[in-house]
Structures are given as structure tokens and as C-alpha cells.
Amino acid sequence: MKVLPWAFEEGTGAFLYWLARPGQHPDEWTVLYNEGRGPLWEQHDMGCLAFLLAVLTGTAETAYFGHLHEVLKPIVHRFTTADAILGTAGQ
């Protein structure tokens, strides 16, 4: 079993790690979080992308990243075609 660092939280010393078990494909690696300046760890039984998506959408069960969804305040995006913006539709 290996613990591989893949992200660092600046200012806190915290790291995100992959827990790589023998025989596992990298898509199956577990995400671990260590608070950096203490003994506490969180384990998230999902891959990196799923974990980041959960953190950014506010669905992650975490004591450390739960505030990010509120801080980032996701906004609604609207997309408009070039025709609509330039007024060339129907010409």
C-alpha cells in the first residue's frame, strides 16, 4: 500500500493523498486528507475527480472543505449564441 501526495493546501500544511493499494487501477484509488499540522485524517472512498466535484458542489462529507461551496458561491451561467449577440439571426 502506498500513500501518494497530489495536492497541498497553502497556508495550512494540509495534503490530499491517493491511497494506492496493490493490484488497484489508479481510477480505484481512495482520496485521503491529512490536516497537516495534526493527526486527523479523512478518507473518501472515491477518486480525485469525484472528490473535487463533491467539494465544489457542496455534497462532500468533509469537516475540512465544506466551507468552500459557500465561499465560492456558484453562479448561474447563461450562454448566448454569436447570432443572438451580433444580431445576425434571420439574415
Features:
91 residues; alpha+beta; elongated
Task: Describe the protein.
With 91 residues, the chain is an alpha+beta fold. It is 24% helix and 26% strand. It is built from 3 helices and 4 strands. The protein is elongated and about 60 Å long.
Total helix count? 3
* Strand content range: 25-35%
In this structure, how is the largest beta sheet organized? 4 strands, antiparallel
Quick one: how many beta strands? Answer: 4
What class would the helix/strand composition place it in?
A: alpha+beta
Radius of gyration: 19 Å
Sequence of strands across the biggest β-sheet: 1-2-3-4
The end-to-end span amounts to 64 Å
Percent of residues in helices: 10-25%
The pLDDT mean sits at 80
Quick one: overall form? Answer: elongated
